Amino acid sequence: MISVCMASCDGERFIAEQIDSILSQLSTRDELIIVDDCSQDQTLKVINSFNRDPRLRLQQTPQRTGHVDSFAQAISLAQGEFIFLADQDDVWPEGRLERMVKAFTEPDVNVVAGNFSMIDENRRPLGPPQVRLLARYNVAPWRNILGILLGRRAYYGCCMAFRRPLCRELLPIPRSIESHDLWIAMVGNRQNSVKHLEESVLLKREHETNVSSPIRRPWPVIIRSRLGMLKALLTALQRARKPATNNAG
């Protein structure tokens, strides 16, 4: 069984296309879980237009909590053996799910991480990003973790999937970390269980309201972010030695 976890918030413009691209690749026993974070536009109306599809499960947050908490809630609700993450404004290219599930057939792979190609608001290609994941990263887990801490590894949750047992170490997501993407990559690399795919497994849409659009941040903000990730790494190491608790690290 496959679980796809999506966080939505004011995504009325593109979410229908994304839902269509996901559902077209799921079997009848798979599920798409959407946690909506208090959308103020027509996002819920768009999602509810798919309510005849039993694979779609919608949850709403009582108050706005942010995309990291929304993804954490969706992951906690997932029932599938493999859990995929999806942003509300991207597009899954044909064959994406099959290619990534196939990567899990290799021994000791708990996380699969791929790359993306960029498209604009009208789905015109913009080309690949400059920084990409490489297959040689498969054998360099601690170098990957150092790369995460230094901002030199391009892990995006929308290009990732993981096995359900990983949730024992993933949840709850530490409050010290800004990005669920990097947290998943950190835990997977700590286990030496990440399979890096050099191919693009996603059409990532760039537009003016992207949550994950790159911006130039002041150095104090960058340093604070890096310290938060270092604290999260310590949490990952602690959870590796004992069962996860119910409190965020």
Topology of this protein?
Blueprint: E1 2-8, H1 15-23, E2 31-36, H2 43-48, E3 56-60, H3 67-77, E4 82-86, H4 96-103, E5 111-119, E6 125-127, H5 141-150, E7 160-163, H6 167-170, H7 180-190, E8 194-205, H8 219-241
Q: Which features characterize this protein?
A:
249 residues, alpha/beta, eight-stranded mixed sheet, globular, disordered C terminus
How would you portray this structure in words?
The chain is of the alpha/beta class and about 250 residues long. The protein contains eight helices and eight strands. Helix 1 (about 15-25) links the parallel strand 1 (about 1-10) and strand 2. The radius of gyration is 17 Å and the shape is globular.
- Structural class assignment: alpha/beta
Strand content: 15-25%
Quaternary assembly = single chain
Overall shape: it is globular
**Major beta sheet, specifics?**
8 strands, mixed
Question: What share of residues is helical?
Answer: 25-40%
Short description:
The protein has 249 residues and is α/β, with parallel strands linked by helices. It contains eight helices and eight strands. Strands 1, 2, 3, 4, 5, 6, 7 and 8 form an eight-stranded mixed β-sheet that branches.
